[in-house]
Amino acid sequence: MKLKKFNRHIGVILLASSLSLSTASGxxxxxxxxxxxxxxxxxxxxxxxxxxxxxxxxxxxxxxxxSSVLSVTWSIENSGDSDAYFTWPNGSTYMYNDPLFYxxxxxxxxxxxxxxxxIMDSSGECLCSGNASIDFKxxxxxGEQVAYWSMFSVPSDVDTITLEIPGFDPIEDIPIS
Length: 177
Known about the structure:
Helix content is 10%, strand content 33%. By secondary structure, the protein is mainly β. The longest helix has 17 residues, at 2-18. The N and C termini lie far apart (42 Å).
C-alpha cells in the first residue's frame, strides 16, 4: 500500500516536471528551488503567532508563453532562535487527495481582485511544494531561508499578482515575467 502511494506521488512529481513551460529564455521546468541567492520581488512579515520569527518572500512569478500556467517561487526565512516547523498553510477550499502542506498558498490578480488556488492534477494532487514533492522541507533552522513553489492557472492578461501565504501579510504588486 505504501509503495502504491509512493508511486502516485512520484507520478505527480514527474507530471509537474514534464510540464513544458516556455519562457523568453527557453523552456522552464519545475526544479527544486534553490535556497540562497534568490531574487526578491517583495517581502512580508508574520501576522499570526504561528509564524512568529518567520518572514515570507516572493522570489519569482514566471508564466509560460504557450499557456496560462504561472509558476511562483516563494520562500520562508527563520530569523528566530529555534527550529520552525512550516506545515500549516494547507488549503481547505479544494479537496486535494492528500492534505498537502502548502496547498493553502494562493494568489490574487491585482487587476481583477480574483483569487487563484494551486492547480490540481487529474489525480487530485496539488501542483505545489508539499509532502508529495521531492523538495518538501518542513523544518527551517534559525537563519535559514527555504524556497517553495506553487503552480496556478491564470488568464494571460494578468500582469501582477498578490501572493497570500497563511500566517503572513500579503505580498502585493508582484510582476509576472
